[in-house]
Structure formats: C-alpha cells, structure tokens
Amino acid sequence: MNDAIIRKVTGRNLIFGPLAIFFIVWNIVLFLYSLHFSKLLYYSTLQAFFATYLIIASFFIGWLIMRVVTNYSQNDHVHTITESFISQLIRRVKIFFWFWSMMTVFEVVYCQGVPVLWLIIGNGKTYFDFGIASIHGFLNSLILATSLVSYYLYLMTGNKRHLLIPLFACFWALIVISRNLLIVNVIQMAILHFYFTKINYYKFAKSILLLLILILIFGVVGDARTGKTTFFELAAVNDNYPDWLPSGFLWVYMYLVTPLNNLIHVFNTISPEWNIGLDNSTILLIPSFLRNLIYGDLTYDSTYYLVTQAFNVSTAYIDPYRDLGYIGVFLLAFFSGFFVTFLQSKKDTRSVLCFCVLMQCNMLSVFYNHYMYLPIIFQLVVIYFCFIARYDSRIVKYAETKRKNMV
C-alpha cells in the first residue's frame, strides 16, 4: 500500500463547531421573527424565544454529554488518507455518477421532459410531476452523496476536475427547479470546505457573497414557480417591510420564520398524540411503495395545523411534538447534538462526510426535518456502503500501524 497522506486540521474556529452553528442559525431565525415583517406572524417574540431555546438547550445537553465522553480536542485532529484510497474513491464516483445519469435519463424519458422545460412551454406540469416514486428519492441521495465525495476529492487533491460533479449537481437542481436539492448540496460542500480550511476574513467574505448570490437565485427560482406579486400577497407583508430589498430576501425571510410560526402555533393549539411508535416522525423514512404495508391507511397530513396553507413547513420538531409533545422535541434535539458531536470526534473519511450531512440537517432543522426525510438522510447509507466501507477501515488501520512503527 502507498505511503499515507496526512491531513492535519488544527485551530478551526469554534464559531464553526456544531453547537455554535446550531446556536447562530436558530438565533438568526428568532431575530428575524422578532421583526414581524408579515401579518401572519401573530405570535409574540417571547413565545418564539421559548420555542427556540427549548430546542437549543436540548441540543446543548446532547452536545455536552458527547463532548465530555469523547474528550475531543479541536486543536489535535489528524485526517489520514492514502493514494490508493483516493484512486478507489475516484473510480467509485465515476461508477455511481454514470449510474445516476442513466437512471435520470430514464426518468426524463418516462416523465416526458424536465420541470424547467414544462415551465417554459407552460403545459401545466410542475416539479411535483417529475420523477418515479421511490426511485427519484434514491437518485437525489446518490447525486448529493456523489457531489459531496467529489468535493472531498477536490480538497484532498486540488484537482479542479473533481468540481465538475458538484457544479453539475447545482445546475441539475435548477433544471428540476428544486431549491431543496440546491441548498442541501451547497451547504454540505460549504461545511466540508470549512472542515479542512482554516478560516480567514477573505474566505469568509467570499462565503457571505456566495450566500447572497444563493439568496438571489432562491428568489429568482421562487418567482418562476409562484410569481413575485402573488408571493407578496401570500406573505401578507406589513407596512414596515423595506420595499428596497430584493424579492429573494422576502422568500428567504418567509421560509425561515413561518416554520417557527407554525411550530409555535402547534404548541398552542394541538395536543400531542402520545404515539410511542413515532408514526408521524418516521413515516417519511419509509419508501413510498412500502408505507401502506407498514403504516396501513395512515397518511402524512402536514396541513391541518398550519397557520396558512401557503407556507407548509414547520421545522424539524413539529412531528416529534405531535408524537410525544415536548419530550419528542427534546429527544430529537438531544440526539442531533449527541451524534453530530460523536462524528466530529472521529478522523476517518466516512465520519467526516457523515458529519457534513448531519451538520446540514442541523442547520436546516429551522426549516424541515431532514433527519427523518429519506432522500436526504439516506446519504449516510450511500456514503457508508457505496463509497467508504471496506477501504476506509483498512486505510485507517494501516496509517495507525505505520505511525506506531515510526515512534
């Protein structure tokens, strides 16, 4: 086996740790909510504060326990890979990308086009009509995981050809008009980037610029799907809203604050079902063709508790609350902090990539429950079995043995 390549990650800024990111993201949402730019936000800032800090405190407890158990040192983190492992990853990326491509071509033929084309010709079909049930979710997991692994290869080798798949994945998200696919892909790559790159003001400024561009794209895609005027009416904008802001800001604002608004609404109006089987929380973890076999006639109803049907997401914690009340909220936030901190303490490639996936789930928990959404969380399975599994353990064992022999 070739000599090991040692990548040492030292002195990463604590502001980019799991707890800090979770704390910052949720407090940004809390701050935005307190501005009350929409008439739909009729709950008080105090009520929003209670909901937000219930989640943050639960996450903190899980983070703290795992931090104590692992005794993780942020300033002594060595990432070990080998040339043969890199070569193996490159081959697997090619195999799985071509598999994704062939299956996606089949989907396009089966659906007779793609959403962006349907939008241009105005045939009435939308992005909801694209894809084959269950297969489409798996393909989304595969392209996201392949994009993440490809960006990892770029960071390890510096070869820009490995950026082609990540860039194509972003382009494909625009073709199918999937903001979720675009945002998940970008966030996971950003987390991976900062995992291996020491933060400086220049790179941080570039990241902020990228975020602003993403917000503008988010608004353009949103306007294409709904229409700017229609969206302003749906958002029930208050008189204190700054009209000079681009429409992308209002799209992002409403999609960030209305999930929290819906969560507070449920806290105040809905009684928990005390469902030990966690049917509401886990139903979207099951492929659609198996749901009726497992859950019977149960359907996933995500509309009856909404403040308005126009904004139909309610953070990651709505379904745990429906199942087990505040206990469900605590458990999901607790285990989110617990497991992401466990992965942060590991040094192997598999753990690093899975860490990025869970960090993305943590960041987007203000919007949706990606922990329990199969097309997103199935990336962990894809990373483990398709890309890493057998080779990762051999390489880590080899590298550890070599270092011991050198001592």
TrEMBL record:
Query: Mind telling me which residue stretches traverse the membrane in this protein?
Result: 14-35, 41-65, 95-121, 133-155, 167-192, 204-224, 324-343, 374-393
What is the superkingdom listed in this entry's lineage?
Bacteria
Keyword tags: Membrane, Transmembrane, Transmembrane helix
Report what the protein is called.
Answer: Oligosaccharide repeat unit polymerase
Q: Does the keyword Chaperone apply?
A: no
